[in-house]
Amino acid sequence: MEASESFLAPWTGFFYWVGVAGVAYWTVLLLRYLRYIVRVWVTGNPGAVGPHLGAWAVVTGATDGIGKAYTEELAKRGLKVVLISRSQEKLDQVASDIREKFKVETKTIVADFQDRETIYSKIKAGLEGLEIGILVNNVGVSYSYPENFLDVPELDKLIDNMININCISVCKMTQLVLPGMLKRSKGVIVNVSSIAAVSPTPFLAVYSATKAFVNYFSHCLNVEYKRKGIIVQSLVPHLVVTNMSKLRKASRFRPMPGWFVKYAINTVGLESETAGYPYHELWVWLIHMLPRWVVDESATRLAVKSKYNLLKKQKAN
Ligand SMILES: NC(=O)c1ccc[n+]([C@@H]2O[C@H](COP(=O)([O-])OP(=O)(O)OC[C@H]3O[C@@H](n4cnc5c(N)ncnc54)[C@H](OP(=O)(O)O)[C@@H]3O)[C@@H](O)[C@H]2O)c1
Description:
Elements: H1 2-43, E1 56-60, H2 65-76, E2 80-85, H3 88-102, E3 106-110, H4 119-127, E4 132-137, H5 155-184, E5 187-192, H6 195-198, H7 205-225, E6 230-235, H8 257-265, E7 273-274, H9 278-289, H10 292-316
Parallel strand pairs: 1-2, 1-4, 2-3, 4-5, 5-6, 6-7
């Protein structure tokens, strides 16, 4: 008995301190995580976006879904808004609702981002002389349903459109707006990417790759210009109830666009890349924790299921 006690004696001290170090490490991690939750998702940064950045906001894809929700939230904060999308009728309707509800000036520009040749000179003319404080590069398109790359209907068209709308628009709009922000040493650019940028998404290959482009572009620009007073944020949401997602019913994990934007806008200045919504951030965390093959396998199962459901719905209509 005495012999074993004397044998273990030096080790009990060692294990005791390993235990203390472990508990201290996990306590620090937990406290840092709690601080992050309170700072980003409870208090947020509601003062970051407002007319102090510049009188005008510009939103691409402003007539529906997430873009419309940004337009409304920005107008609510007292910014005048330039709305850009394809249909003058829809633009007029949304602009007039906003003017009536929030008593702010609006401007509309009709542009189809499929076209990369002519629209940017038109948009440049439309933005001339405006003091732009925030640009939301929101416009984006996805597949009608998940599919193997070579089996995507009208593949050539899809490749061109997706690159023009999802990637070129982000670069070109930034090229138009950033110089004015730099002159005033302030401004915010929010680029709406997707969780498909965080996790390569099989069966949505072109979409996933275009969103990774947006994510990398945003990250680089944020580093290049943050010392000059410009914030560039990449949003990587999971599913939101919009025409694109073809979801109709909201849930905790699948918010309505207005609810999503209320959270996302308060992360500006706190997070340069974020899912924008606490429950979506859990997905991002899970993707980083799980082995790659598990994520690929579940993405494949989900793609097969949603292709089946979407084609069934299409046939029924
Ligand atoms: N919904 C989601 O679950 C989800 C998840 C992750 C990321 N995102 C991203 O969020 C962004 C917005 O998606 P959303 O779901 O809100 O889409 P949405 O509901 O389909 O709305 C798209 C908006 O863009 C406009 N638009 C579409 N094609 C256009 C074009 N060629 N030129 C100009 N405007 C065009 C539409 O207006 P008109 O039709 O009148 O032109 C509409 O205002 C996208 O970048 C998407 O990739 C969405």
